[in-house]
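Service request form, structural biology core

Requester: graduate student, group of Dr. S.
Request type: structure prediction, single chain
Budget code: on file
Notes: please return the result as structure tokens.

Sequence provided:
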Amino acid sequence: MLLQFNISPDIAENGLQALKMIEEKQYDLIFMDIQMPEMDGMEATKYLKNNKKYSKNRNTPVIALTAYAMKEDRELFLSSGMDDFLPKPVDFSQLENLLLKYNILINNSIFDKEDVLKRLNYNKEFYDHLINLFFEHTPKQIEALEKTIQLRDIPEIQRHAHSLKAVAATVGSENLRIEAEKLERIQSNESDEEISKIFNNIKYHYNILLDALKKDARSS
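Core staff response, request fulfilled:
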């Protein structure tokens, strides 16, 4: 699943192997399965946090991977030195939020700025103009799309979705473009539940994109 974010993970078969890898290489984020063989994730984390030989990763966030999501379980994980947890089976959106939280998810996974600039012959002034247009007009597009969905006006839904798809492609957001295209292709017999599901995905990717573009604009 991490490969979908252009992240190539190193994978350990057990806790002892994980510690050996942690000793040798610095990581941006560490996922510890609570139920690893030979040494579980909690024990491995205690070794990591309390042994100088793992100093390269002492401050690296450690995320518990667990099927146990009760409050007392989470508190136990945190008390062992873990920083956060991710329930199993892993949900794509929860993983994405966690990667964003710890600044692991690079902007290219949300929008491909380099590709957009390349298409504009690296005209930074025009790029900034396009992004400002996005900030100004796209919220209105999302609002208009939501209203047509409430009215179940299929032709208008398709029209607004087509427009949003073009906007997403312009700013290099493949995730938003894909969801908008799904909505553009709906038929009159599509269920309200499915339409709402696609629109919720659109809002989710739009909000992440908006936040990423704002952060990028502030740092430029």
